[in-house]
Amino acid sequence: MKAVILAAGRGTRLGLDLPKAMVEVDTGRTIIDYQVENLKPFIPVENILVVVGFKKELIAARHPELSFVVNDRFAVTNTSKSLLEGLSRLDEDVLWLNGDVIFDRELIPKMLSAGCSCVLVDNKRCGPEEVKYRVDDKGYITEISKQVEKAEGEALGLNLVSKSDLGPLRKHLELVADSDYFEKAIENYIVQDKGRFLAVPADGLFCHEVDFPEDLARVKAYLAAASRGEKS
């Protein structure tokens, strides 16, 4: 099992001149610090790969124990091409996550125990900026994008691809446009090649992407409450 963290872009919507993975969410601790801390009990540190681009030297200096691959075209590509870079050298099951997500550690074994390619989801009401999904009667994803109508909830930014699905997913990541999110490749694989990604519910565990200042405030409040042993 390998883990890939997508941390190539810049967090323009946060108004900070930093990769979002380097945004401080607690005193002296960044998003990527929390991510690595939560991954290490399940995935050896030598198996954690970070896709970097914008100010890549900051992340490399922060976590020199990790492996890195560079998306040199980070300024003109989206997460589909960063994920393609991350998966290009791998040949095993891969857990991947966006470099701006804070999540409860207990979510990792939920993903690993699914036994197949899967996407972490919730069932909340979604806004236009969130990646939404629908499933079939067996819980497998049928649609996943920001444009899904009658959405069942949000895709939360934690995903797993099994070794058997790795080749087809890479193919679809190559075929989508530079501007597409990786969810476009997942949806195309499902629709065109009958790929299967199970929707794994978060079941109330915390998982939140930091896109806007209000997201950062929510994450900071959650982590502060968690450090006091309180439920958020």
Most strands sheet: 9 strands, mixed
Shape field: globular
Mean pLDDT value: 94
Structural class: alpha/beta
CATH architecture: Alpha-Beta Complex
Classify the helix fraction into a percent range: 25-40%
User: What's the CATH class label?
Assistant: Alpha Beta
Number of strands: 13
CATH fold title: Spore Coat Polysaccharide Biosynthesis Protein SpsA, Chain A
Provide structural commentary.
It is globular and about 45 Å long. It has one domain: Spore Coat Polysaccharide Biosynthesis Protein SpsA, Chain A. It is built from seven helices and 13 strands. 42% of the residues are buried. The chain has helices spanning 31-39, 56-62, 79-87, 107-112, 163-175, 182-193, 213-227, and strands spanning 2-7, 24-26, 29-30, 48-52, 67-70, 94-98, 101-103, 118-121, 132-135, 141-145, 153-161, 198-201, 207-209. Helices cover 31% and strands 25% of the residues. The model has no long low-confidence stretch (mean pLDDT 94).
Brief summary of the model shown:
The protein has helices spanning 31-39, 56-62, 79-87, 107-112, 163-175, 182-193, 213-227, and strands spanning 2-7, 24-26, 29-30, 48-52, 67-70, 94-98, 101-103, 118-121, 132-135, 141-145, 153-161, 198-201, 207-209.
Name some characteristics of this structure.
232 residues, two-stranded antiparallel ribbon, nine-stranded mixed β-sheet, Spore Coat Polysaccharide Biosynthesis Protein SpsA, Chain A
